[in-house]
Input
Amino acid sequence: MSGERVHAAAAAGSDLRARASEFGLTADEFDRIAAGMGRAPNALEAAMAGALWSEHCGYKNSRPLLRRLPTEGPQVLQGPGENAGVVDLGDGLALAFKMESHNHPSAVEPVQGAATGVGGILRDIFAMGARPIAVLDSLRFGPLEHPRTRYLLHGVVEGIASYGNAVGVPTVGGDLAFHPGYLENPLVNVMALGVLRTEELQSGTVGAPGNRLLYVGSRTGRDGLGGAVFASADLHGGSSEDRPAVQVGDPFLEKQLLEATLAVTAAGVAVGVQDMGAAGLTSSVAEMAHRAGRGVDLDVDAVPRRERGMTPFEVMLSESQERMVLTVEPGREEEVVAILDRYELDHAWIGTVEDHDAFRVLSGGRVVADLPVALVNEPPAYERDHHEDPAVAAARARRPDPQLPDDPGAVLEALVAAPGLASTEPIWRQFDHQVRTDTVVAPGAADAAVLRIKGARQGVAATVDANPRLASLDPYAGAVLSVAEAYRNLSSVGAEPLGVTDNLNFGNPERPTVYHQMVRAVDGLRDACAALGTPVTGGNVSLYNQWRDGDVDRAIPPSPTVGMVGVLPDVRRHATLGLKRAGDRLWLVGEGTDELGGSAYLAHLHGLEEGAPPACDLAREAAVGTVVRRLIQDGFIDTAHDVGEGGLAVAVAEMTFPNDVGAAIDASAGAPTGTRWDAALFGEAPGRIVIAAPPDRSDAIEAALRTAGVPWSVLGRAGGDALVLRLTDPDRTVRRPVARLRSAHEAPIEEALRDG
Amino acid sequence: MSIAVVRFPGSNCDTDVLHALGAVLAHPVHEVAHTDADLGAASAVIVPGGFSYGDHLRAGALAARSPVVAAVAAFAGRGGPVLGICNGFQILTEARLLPGALARNDGLRFVCRDVHLRVERDGPPFLSRTRRGEIVRLPVAHHDGRYVAPTETLDRLEGEGRVALRYVDAEGRRDPEANPNGSDRAIAGVVNEAGNVLGMMPHPERAVEPLLGGDDGLRILGSLVDALAGRAAEAPA
Output
C-alpha cells in the first residue's frame, strides 16, 4: 500500500469502502469502523484503523486462541498486554522478556530485516524499564544447499551481528533449522531479556489527562510505510519490490535511546514509556491511550521529520526505527529533556492526554482524524472453521519401518553433519556473545544460555525451541514437545523454569487447514505450559507466512516457537554439556525409546517425514527436569545434556566435542527389549537427559534418582578419544574418533556461509 | 586519584571496564564523557571498546577528533598511562597516539572468540604481571581488528621492542589459524615510543573472573593497578 494510492482513494470519496483492502480491511470491517464512529472514516482514519486491525497489531485471527493460554502464576509480575512480560527473580530483581518476528522484512531484505528485528525487540525490553542483557534468535530457512537459503542465511546473520554487536547487547543463543517449507519465507524470531529492579517496572500508558506526550529518537521518514499491513499479507511474486516497507536500522541511535530511556526510568520522571513498532505512531499512541482508558490529541505537525512534504498519513503510519513515546506529567518536562539532551537525542512534544475517549490527530489546527480509542484497539476477533489436511493425518498414521542401515557409525556421522544438527559456531562467532561481561557459558556450550547478574547470587537462563518436522506432522504434539524441550534445556543447566514467550508463525489463517494448525498448536502450548508451570507472559503472532509456488500456495510448516526463561538460585552452580573428565560415569535419566516418528534420522537418512511424533508424558518431563536441576543446584553434577533432535547418540556425540573427551555407551540402555538399534540411538522421545559425574558420587546421585521416582540407567563412561556405541542386537561395537565426528559437525554451516 | 574511563556515544564496553577495575580489582574509577576537556583527577586513562559514533566514516575516526581525546593526548604526552582496548585502540591510532591502523578483518566477518597471545614485552605500566614469552588467553570481538602498518614502521616497532602482544596458538607458535583477523606479523597490541600508551584488540576486561571462563585479563589490568600503586608510593608526600 503506498501513500499515493491512499490519497487517490480519498479523492475518490465514496470509493473508499470499495478500496478497503488497500487499508488491510475487508468491506465488513470498514462498515464496523464506520458504525463505531457514527460516520464513514476518511482515508487517514481508515488507514490508521486498518493498521491497528491488522493481524500484526490487532491479532484478529489469533486473539480467541491466545485467550486459551495460561498467563498467571505467583512469579508473573507482568503478563500479556504490555511491551514485554516480566517475572520475579527474587531479592527485588525481575526479568523482562519477549520474542518477536521479523519474517516478512527478512524475506525481502535479510540484512535490514533481521537488524531491525533485533532493534524492535530491544526497545520492547527497555520500554519496561529493564536493561537488556541478552538476545537469542530462532532462525528458519529452506534447504541449506539452496542458493536462496545461503543468501538469506548470510544476510540474516550479518543483520543480527551488525545491530546486536554495535548496540552492545550480547547474542547468547538461539536455534537454527532448515526445511523446504521455509524456502521463500524464512523465519527470524528474536527474543530479548532484560533485568530490572521490581520498583522500576514501567508501563506503556498515557496516565491522566493533562500529561504530555514526548516523541524521542529518530526522525520520521517515509521508510516502512504500511509495514504492519505488509507483515500481514502473503509474499507474492513482486515482494522484492516492497523494499520501502522494510525499515533501515541505526544501532548507534538505538544505543543512545536505550541509555536515555533507562536514565529517564531510573530517575522516575516518566509516567509511561512505549516503543514505536509496527504501525508506528498510530499503534504506540493508540495502545498507550487504551491502557489508560483516556483520549489523546496528537499534533502531527510537531513530529520531527526527515523530509519535507510528508502528509499526516505518512507520518502516522511510518515505521521508521529507533523511536519511542514517553508520557510526562506537567512540571517534569525539564527534567526529562535534560536527560535526553545528555544523550543528544531529538525530541518533540507531540500531544496531550485528554478527558475524552478519542484518538484525535490535529494538523494546521484542524482535526484530521478522530477515532474512538476503544474501537480501534478492539478489532473483531475471528474464530474460523477448520479441519486437518487429510494428507497430514495420513502421514502421521503411517508407522515408519525403514530398512536398517548397515553402519550405525556412518549414520551418526551423517546426522551430526545434517543441517539443523550441524554446529552453529560459524554463526555465533560473528555475534558478540560476551559484551556486558555477564555471559557465563558461551553459545553451544550448554543447552541454554546462562547469564549472571552483577552483584546478585542468582543467574538467568534462556532458551528458544521449535521443531518444524514434528509440528508439521502434529501441531499439537509439536507445540507440546517444544515446550518440553525448552523446559528440559533449562533444567539441564540447573535453572528453575519461570515463564514462556511464544512466537506463533503460520501461513494464511483464512485457510481452514492452516487455522487448524493454529488451534492445535495453541492447545498444545496451553496444555504443556499449564502442566510445567510456565505461564505465557506475551509473545507475537506472525501469519500469512506463505508464498506462490507455481499454481500452489505454499504455507510454512506450523511453527510455534517457544522462548523460555528460568532462574538459577546460585549462578555458580550450573551445568554445561561437554564431558569434563575421563572416568566420569554417564547416566541416562528417563527411559530409552523405540519411537522414530518425525525424527531427524528418518528425514535425513531415509527421506521420510512421517509417523506420529513421540508421546510426551508431561508429568515425567517435570520429574526428570526437577531431579536434574536439584542435582546441579546441590553441586553433584556439572555436566548435563538433554536428548533432543538426533536422539541419544547425537546427544552423547555433542558431549564429547567441547573438551575432546570421548565416551563409551551402552546404546540400548533403558530401551524396551527388542528395540531396533536405530530407534534406540536416534529416536527422539522426550523426557531424557544425559548426566555425567565422577563415579564416587554414584551413590548420592542414584539415591536422588530413586527418590525422584524417575526411570534411569547407567549409560557408560567418559574417556578416550572416540565415541564407542555398544549394541546388543546384533551384538557389535561401533567406534568413531571424536575428531572425525567433530570435523563433520563443524563443516556444513561454515561452507554455507562462505558461499553465501 | 583514579583511573578515568572515557565514554563516547556508542561506547559499549565502558561499564565492563568499570566493573573489572572497580568491582574486581577494587581500584577507584571514574567516567569521563566525550565532551569533557578535563580528565578529572586521573592517574591513568582507559579508552574502552564499542562502536563510538556508530563507526561512521571509519572506526574511531570521529572519536579521535572529540575534545576528550585532546585531553588524553596531553595526558599521554606528560607520561600518563593510557590503555586503548579494541575500539579504544582504533581511536588511539586515528589520534596518532599509536602508529599503524586497524583495517577490516581478512575474513570480512565480525569475530568473537578467545585467542592465545604471546607477551612480547614486559614491565610496567601494563605488563608487569607477565613475563616475556608467556602465553595468555583473552577474548577478541571486532570487525576491524587487522593491524596494518608500512614495513618500515613494523620493522621499527619490532626493533624497538614495541610489539606488546602477538596472536599465537596455545603452544605459542605463529600460525595463520591463530591470527583471528590477518594482522601484519600477528600483532595484537603495540606501545608508543615512551611505552606509556598501549593499544590492543583483545579485551582484558572480559577475562577477570573464572566464572566467565578465565582471568588472564588481570595480568594486564592488574599490572596497571600495580603501576599506579607504585607511583603513589614514589610520589612525594
User: Anything to note?
Assistant: The longest strand of chain A covers residues 131-141. Residues 140 and 276 of chain A are 26 Å apart (CA to CA).
